[in-house]
Amino acid sequence: MTIEGLRVVDELRGNPRRPVQQYPAPKKSILTLPCFGQPVDDLKTMQEALTTHVVRCAEKLRRQQSAACLVTVYLQTNPFRTDQPQYLNSQATALPHPTNATPELPQYD
Length: 109
Hints:
The chain has 109 residues and is of the alpha+beta class. Helices cover 28% and strands 19% of the residues. The protein has helices at residues 3-12, 43-63, and strands at residues 68-76, 88-99.
């Protein structure tokens, strides 16, 4: 019998092997991935998409009753288009205070 099988047998006999977690631990990061169906080189379009995704992250933060201390933005070209020049960069910004307020977060993106 495998170790997992032995654990199941023990649990069926009333000997719990893993502590039961009443509530899941809060997430330490929240991620949204904006993807465009076609190449985008218009800065305004990218900024609008970024703001939309920051707003979604703020909603997720409020749902889990959490707040952000840091905003990190990644920008990458399509890695599957090997015939095109590639770009990958990120920028992290520490927030002056933890927040989940929609009006505050987009100003840091």
